[in-house]
Structure formats: C-alpha cells, structure tokens
From TrEMBL:
Entry keyword Signal: yes
Protein name listed in UniProt: Uncharacterized protein
Native species: Lupinus luteus (European yellow lupine)
The entry's keywords: Signal
Signal peptide annotation: 1-19
High-level lineage: Eukaryota, Viridiplantae, Streptophyta, Embryophyta, Tracheophyta
Superkingdom of source: Eukaryota
C-alpha cells in the first residue's frame, strides 16, 4: 500500500510543478543545443528540483 501512496503523491507533485511552469511561476534549467527544459527528476523515492538560480524560482 505504501508504494501506491507514494506514487499518488509523486504524481500530484509533478502536476503542481507542471502547473507552476505553465503559469510562469517556475522555470526549469535548459540543457543542450535544443534547449530541453528539465524541472524535476524523480527516481524511486527521491525528487530533485532543477531550476535556474533566480529569486523567482526560490
């Protein structure tokens, strides 16, 4: 039951990050020549937020 609850919370958090990005409240970090934007990384039970170092992102 605990892994399922973690997935629910992690998906909800990812949706909140997406919503903040779409609203212009949060800006991820652009990588490579194409400018692929990375905003959050999730692996097993870890979440890393990646962003440009700006006051707004803080």
């Amino acid at each position: 039951m605990a892994p399922f609850l973690f997935l629910l919370v992690a998906e909800g958090f990812a949706a909140l990050v997406r919503q903040a990005k779409n609203g212009g409240l949060y800006e991820g970090y652009k990588i490579g020549k194409r400018g692929v934007e990375v905003s959050d990384l999730q692996f097993v039970d870890d979440t890393i937020l990646v962003c440009n170092p700006t006051i707004q992102n803080l």
